[in-house]
Every structure is written in structure tokens, then in C-alpha cells.
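Structure representation:
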Amino acid sequence: MQEDMKVTIGDYLPLRDVVFNTLRQAILKGELEPGERLMEIQLAGRLGVSRTPVREAIRKLELEGLVVMIPRKGAEVASITEKSLRDVLEVRKALEELAAELACQRMTEEEIVEAEKQLENFKKEVQSNDVTKIAEMDVEFHEMIYMGTKNERLIQMLHNLREQMYRYRMEYIKDKEKRNTLVEEHMEIINRIKNHDIEAAKEASRKHIDNQESAVSKKIKS
């Protein structure tokens, strides 16, 4: 872990949430590497906080699948495995297909226009090297489709899965060669939804997830 990792106190955020966000970003960015042990005392010292918010953050990270508890060893950063990747993306693919189907039926013209505008901004952003920003805009694009379904339960389920998907999303976006493909896939999805072509929209969503799984799986094996 980098020695200069520090907590930045955000406005109105409880300390435990600030510590959680800091550790989460460190894991997603690779500053805390898979298999690295998370020592409460050491982390508390480096972050300039007590052990309590660190302990609470580690518990929350475990729920997200970013941390695992090893008997007689304690907490460590979870490895990215093919099984964990497959488990998450199998669920995501099913939910994304349903979201595409409902969006074809319920997304308004105004919402589609906004999604197209967001996609234009996304095209510009992928030329940068700000992986975190690109990932955030990727999340935002999908979020617009989720909201277009008008199904609160589906939106909630996708939100619950979002944090577990984020790690794989980051791994995918780190590959510069995949970013233009990502843009093209987003364009295909929104165009199919715009044309109210349910089967084509579902197929575009499936392809989008399958390509991500294939690319990240290759990185895990290499």
C-alpha cells in the first residue's frame, strides 16, 4: 500500500464512510493489491484515524466482496477469480437484459436524448487516461437505462450489484484498447432501445457483458 494514502474529510460524511471510501478506492485502483493483508492498527495509523472506523470499513468491504476474512489470519484484499467474475456477471447479464427490454417499452424520448448526450461526453472522456472518471461515466450511462425501466425493484437490485461490478468494470477499462469498443457497444444498446427493438437490445446487452467477461478473464489468466 502506498505510504501517502490519506483520508480526505468530506463535507457531512461520517468518518466511517470516509475511511470506507478511501480503502475502497485504494483497492479498486490497485494501491491495495489482491492478497494484501489489512491490518487495522497499521491502516489506522496511515489514515490518521482510530481502529473503529477502519474495522467498520473492512466489514462493509467484505459485504461487497472486496475483502475476505481468512481464518487465523484476518482480513485481506479479495483476489479477482474467474468464478467470482462469472458469478457477478451472470447475474448482471440477466438483469441488464431485463432492463433493456423494459427500457424499450418505457424509456421516454427525452430520456433517450439525455442518454445520447451522455454518450457523446463519454466518447470524449475515453480519450483521457482518467480510468476512474471513465468508469463513473460508464456507470452513469447504464444508470440512465435503469431509470428508464420505471421498475423500482429492478433498479434497487442493480444498485445492490453495482459495487461488486465496479471492480471488474475498472479492470476492463484499464485496457485502453477496449475503450472504443465500450463506446460502440453503448451506442448499439441505446440505438436498439430508441428503435424499440426488444430482442436486438437484449442481444446488444448480452454481447456487452460477454465481451467484458472474456476480456477480464484473459487478464486474470495472464
